[in-house]
Amino acid sequence: MRVRNEEKVQLVKQKAMEMVVSDGFEGFSVNKLARACGISVATLYIYYKDKDDLITEIALEEAKRMGEITLGDFDPELSFAEGLRKQWENRSRYILENPVASAFFEQLRTSTYQDKVMECIICDFKAKMGTFMQKAIKNKEVDAMPLEVYWSVAYAPLYSLLRFHHEGRSLGGKPFVLNEDIMWRTFDLVVKALTPSK
């Protein structure tokens, strides 16, 4: 059996994500990927059993990395504002430093691969975020609310800013570059919106 060449594996992973982002899952094929990597299709089948296995493995590996970055230095015992700020830092860093992988995950969200991939990272993330939120609710730092409401207020503004940044323009086509001032001004408004009234 041939030894796994890690350089080729990383090249395959990067090119596969780029192709899914540019062509979607419908336009993605193992033959195109092999051509883009300058390797034979047979070489791909040394590493992956088929197209689904290739996409799933790449997505699982990147999801694990994303989860580690998102939870990096995050402590469920932080105050609500400090913990949410750390999440904004980690999430924005991952997306800004990994634009192709982030766009790849956007494609995954609306695909049949979503369930397989999300299962893998949700456990640790759910446990830490659950502990964090329960503590914040108990300490009256935030009201209890449905997860969808919380996510929409706590994170959707960040993802909108990151999307504007990625596209290079905001509403109405005005040029836009995300900076610290804009990000943290938005964050302050989010915390204010989530803070229970006295």
TrEMBL record:
A GO term, aspect molecular function: DNA binding
Domain HTH tetR-type: 6-66
InterPro entries associated with the record: Homeodomain-like_sf, HTH-type_Tx_Regulator, HTH_TetR
Keywords per UniProt: DNA-binding
SUPFAM superfamilies on file: Homeodomain-like
Record carries keyword Heme: no
Residues of the DNA-binding region: 29-48
Entry keyword Transferase: no
Pfam families reported in the protein's UniProt record: TetR_N
Protein name: TetR/AcrR family transcriptional regulator
